[in-house]
Amino acid sequence: SDEVELLVLQGVPIGEPVVQHGPFVMNSRNEIMQAFQDYQRTQFGRWPHRDDDPVHPRERGRFAQYADGHEDLPEEVPVDFDTIASMSVKELKAFIIKKGLSHTDCVEKSELQARAREALGECAAEDG
Description:
The chain is mainly α and about 130 residues long. It contains 4 helices and 4 strands; from the N terminus they run E-E-H-E-E-H-H-H. The protein has helices at about 30-40, 80-85, 90-100, 110-125; strands spanning about 20, 25, 65, 70. The strands form 2 sheets. The chain has a two-stranded antiparallel sheet with strand order 1-2. A hairpin with a 5-residue loop joins strand 3 (about 65) and strand 4. The protein is elongated. The protein starts with 18 loop residues before the first strand and ends with a helix. The model has no long low-confidence stretch (mean pLDDT about 85).
C-alpha cells in the first residue's frame, strides 16, 4: 500500500470578514491592495537569499536556519537493523541518502529496507 501524509487544521472562528487574493489573506479589499503594495515595495523585509527559490542539497537533510545564522538540527535517532523495519518510506530514503547511497532503483518499501540494511552494514564495516 502507498504511504499517505495528511495535514488537518482547525481553528476557532474569529467573526471577521475574510478577503483572499493570491498569497494574501486580509479583512478587506483595501488591506489586500496595501499588502500587494508593501510586498512590491519591500519584498516583506528583503529576501536574504540570492535566488527566489533557494534549494538546499538533499544530502543536507532537515534543518532550520535562522536570520542570525544559527541552525537547529533534528535529534539524530540511532538506526540499527531492528529499527529499519519500523521506518517510513520517507525516513528510509533520507537514511539511505545520508549514508551516501542511491535509492532511485528501489520501487518497493522492502527494497528500500534492504538498501538501508546495506548502508548500515557498510557503516559497521567502516567502524570495525
